[in-house]
């Protein structure tokens, strides 16, 4: 049941801050590049360019690999995705997998919650991977809605935003997407939600602005004010 109860006289509408994960909450680039390299090596393929791998972070995995190898057959994309998942899981199990929180993220989440906002995640990670990452940092219970591309279209399609709105009962006009890639900004725009770009991730600020970012944050402590400004709070 949606959390918004519009039937209560005088009840305030809920508002939602919907975060990307990789490149926004956590710095996962090294783990992602390492797993992608392992997948390519396992199939005897030349290593992909690390910068190219970072640029596709946020897309659904098979789609991301298709961008890296546009001339390959779809079945190879799927096989590489399976190898990537195995490599990623193996690194996590061996304790060599690192996805540190970006500086100031906990404080930003605290400030948004204190302002009365719900928190959510919309990510290209699998749900299993997202839960493991959030749990590692003790953040799993901070988020009301977790959206991944496991059960529907990934970014930049707005489906994950729509599902988050359906789960929480929050209106698009009361929602802000926070992310580091053009995929996040395009997703927000298609859903008619607010869009805040962060400068510490994997796409350039000019790209974020061109894709529809309404605010740019250089540091995490700027995020709460940017979000609240877009919501007129």
TrEMBL record:
Annotated transmembrane regions: none
PANTHER family: HYDROLASE-RELATED (PTHR43434:SF24), PHOSPHOGLYCOLATE PHOSPHATASE (PTHR43434)
Sorted UniProt keywords: Hydrolase
One function term, GO molecular function aspect: hydrolase activity
Organism, scientific name: Skermanella cutis
Lineage, highest ranks first: Bacteria, Pseudomonadati, Pseudomonadota, Alphaproteobacteria, Rhodospirillales
Name the UniProt record assigns to this protein: HAD-IA family hydrolase
Entry-linked Gene3D superfamilies: HAD superfamily/HAD-like, Putative phosphatase, domain 2
């Amino acid at each position: 049941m949606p959390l918004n109860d519009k039937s209560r006289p005088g009840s305030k509408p809920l508002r939602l801050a919907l975060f990307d994960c990789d490149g926004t909450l956590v710095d996962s680039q090294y783990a992602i590049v390492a797993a992608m390299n392992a997948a390519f090596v396992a199939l005897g393929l030349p290593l992909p360019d690390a910068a190219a791998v970072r640029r596709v972070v946020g897309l659904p995995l098979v789609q991301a690999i298709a961008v890296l190898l546009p001339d390959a057959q779809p079945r190879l994309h799927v096989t590489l995705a399976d190898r990537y998942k195995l490599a990623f899981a193996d690194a996590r199990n061996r304790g060599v997998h690192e996805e540190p929180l970006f500086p100031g993220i906990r404080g930003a989440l605290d400030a948004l919650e204190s302002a009365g906002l719900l928190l959510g995640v919309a990510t290209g990670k699998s749900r299993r991977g997202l839960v493991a990452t959030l749990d590692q940092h003790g953040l799993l219970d901070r988020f009301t809605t977790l959206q991944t591309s496991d059960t529907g279209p990934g970014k930049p399609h707005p489906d994950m935003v729509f599902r988050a709105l359906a789960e929480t009962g929050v209106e698009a006009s009361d929602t802000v997407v926070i992310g580091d890639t053009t995929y996040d900004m395009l997703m927000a725009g298609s859903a008619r939600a607010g869009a805040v770009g962060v400068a510490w991730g994997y796409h350039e600020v000019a790209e974020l602005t061109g894709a529809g970012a309404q605010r740019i944050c250089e540091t995490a402590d700027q995020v709460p004010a940017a979000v609240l400004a877009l919501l007129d709070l």
